[in-house]
Specification:
- The structure is a single chain.
- With 87 residues, the protein is mainly α.
- The protein folds into two domains: 56 residues; 29 residues.
- 84% of the residues lie in helices and 0% in strands.
- The protein has three helices and no strands.
- Helix 1 crosses helix 2.
- The longest helix is centred in the middle third of the chain and has 28 residues.
């Protein structure tokens, strides 16, 4: 079943690229536009499904939580660099 979906998805992607690149003559820009459109459509579809089936709502992060996540990321990043440098 997943193989069929993969082929269908690949076929649709090839059609989008063919339209933007071949018929409109946009070249590489057309391929990028096709990729962006596909990503936006996929993200929209996933958000709609999650909202309808599971009641997904948007929650803005609080300042304290954002600070906690960013400080962990910074510590992790510098720790990784220090580990690479054997400091």
């Amino acid at each position: 079943m997943s193989e069929k979906r993969t082929l269908t998805t690949g076929g649709r992607a090839a059609c989008r690229v063919a339209v933007f690149v071949g018929l409109l003559g946009w070249g590489v820009v057309g391929a990028l536009v096709s990729l962006i459109v596909a990503a936006a459509m996929g993200l929209t579809a996933i958000l709609v499904v999650l909202r309808c089936k599971h009641g997904l709502t948007w929650a803005w992060p609080s300042g304290a939580h954002l600070h906690q996540v960013l400080s962990f990321g910074v510590r992790y990043y510098f720790g990784k660099i220090r580990n690479l440098l054997n400091v």
